[in-house]
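Ex. 9. Protein: enoyl-CoA hydratase.
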Amino acid sequence: MIYEGTNLSVDLLEGSIAELVFDSSGSVNKFDQQTISELASAIESIRQTKGVKGVLVRSNKPAFVVGADITEFMPLFSQSEEAILSWISKTSQVFNEFEDLPFPTISAINGFALGGGCEMALSTDLRVADTSATLGLPEVKLGIMPGFGGTVRLPRLIGADNALEWMATGRNRSANQALSEGAVDAVVKPEHLLQAARSMLTDAIAKKLDWQSRRALKQRPLKLNNNEAMMSFSTAAAFVAAQAGQHYPAPHQMVATVRESASLARDEALKLENKGFVKLAKSDACKAQVGIFLADQQVKSKAKKLAKTALHSIDKHAVIGAGIMGGGIAYQGAVKGITTVMKDISQTALELGLSEAATILKKGMSKGKVDADKMASTLNNIVPTLDMQAISDVDLVIEAVVESPEVKSSVLAELEESVSSETIITSNTSTISINHLAKALKSPQRFCGMHFFNPVHRMPLVEIIRGKETNESTVAAVVAATLKMGKTPIVVKDCPGFLVNRVLFPYFAGFSRLVLDGADFVSVDKVMEKNFGWPMGPAYLLDVVGLDTADHAAGVMSAGIPERMQKIEHDPVKLLFEANRLGQKNAKGFYNYSKDKRGKPTKLAADEAYALLLPHSKEQQAYADEEIIARLMIPMANEAIRCLEEGIVASATEADMALIYGLGFPPFRGGIFRYIETMGLKNFVALADQYAHLGAIYQISDGVREMAANNRSYFA
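Predicted structure tokens for enoyl-CoA hydratase:
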């Protein structure tokens, strides 16, 4: 044994080959500070061992190395720039020392080689992967860039264009894709991986493979003349600007770093990478994106723990109410292999539900993500029926009929009589009280809300709404079922609008009041999309939601929380709804919708909408971007805080993830609570106080004022 640590070891094999094996004491191999330290010690031990002629790097786990230990990032990145620079410089130097060993090296890559794992493989002279392998540099998703030499070695191996596409998008590559681009040298079946790696390394030792020139390629400047460099980096910069926009600095920094280091040899190029890494590590976007990653892990871990306590397995679903939403829910279960009965009273509705599932699958086929077998098996898992008796043996019922308390209550009462006493009953409602609906049932303890978001197949969140009489086993079983459907469940308590819609409607109210005060809704949309980062501005989002749906929900919220959400006189939403401008569903709302000559959807600000607003609005005026953002986001933030204070949601982390997954809250801002804390609680209180005269939705709670005064955090 040459070296033995907790997470890796080195042994001397036949043929004077040193085998460096990653075998973490945890479930996966990752580069935490302990592993980096052990790698440095292992390299020194290899260097000091006489007779070594080559090094083979492999994993003793199902994955090679999954990347850095992200749980260490928050405390590390909170340090000074000097401290972070010292750490990243020393760490990247470990990879240099490995690359500089005086004999050939090879990586045998199985499973995931991501981030630092991919950079480890890049530091070897040769790379062979098995067919299960996935390689990538996904650091951009955390708001950072590769820091262990990835921005230097990958462009020199596969070209700057390809490397920047890897890094700027963060998309992984299969083994064969990596082979075609030159990132690996061979791909073999898993059972042949070690044999192939040893054979290649033996050939390199025997000088049958020119490993020195491969290494030299990674250490010298990029082979680009001035024209090639200009074209390459201009194209990359334009691509990044179009895809990432202004709010995500990481891909822009990657392009700048690779461009500036193109004429430099490895060591000087790495200094630029180190500096770029530090700059990104201190950015708000990085803090938010790392926070999202950790929050996602926390939310899913909590859900999995709760799911393990479920007393019953849910293997067969029923969806009551077909159509677009019902079809989407049925598809989501069916695509995960769950037999799903889709029940309706109308054959036309059943056909619409099946059509919705088929449309989703066809889009997947057109993108190469779904094959014919998957399409057939998914559709076969959906059992359409007009007969209520067909649901008698299901484990879970999801009621998804029209958003009416009377209709839902009637349907729930009927279906309770048609299922077994063990069947769990849920309602896919966005606003109606679960406690109210539970009154229609004889066994309310097995009933809860299961709020899906539209379009179901794309939106990750499902709100699980616990009623007063819902028992723990019901919640656990529904959480388990939601995970099985491939969704992220977040459990909340019953209240008007639950969590997501409760915080959304004060945002809409802020928008309505701003428009009545003379703001142009198109300008507001542009600010909230381009500046704040929402995928859709409020007017556009209302059109997508439907002005009829929004008006109905506003009425529910007003009735439920009248002290803050009373109806607005001459609310633009109601004005448009009463004029039969329903949004996208009838192609007219704040915007008019049509298709151009090529069949591409278009939207134009509707003169008819302006005409409806004119008699009830102040004279149109320009508002500063900061004021537009404040007038919309303060109400949302205030209501989110109240939900946390009232125990509607259990933690700020869950609230953040709910808004990111349910509304598309801008990820670079990290969620509503991360946004508040990035601003600073004292600054938020001061800002809200400036607008307190506008009404109750702008007035902060005593709780947040106290937290600000005591320098407390929602994430403590």
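Check your answer against this statement. The longest strand covers residues 8-13.
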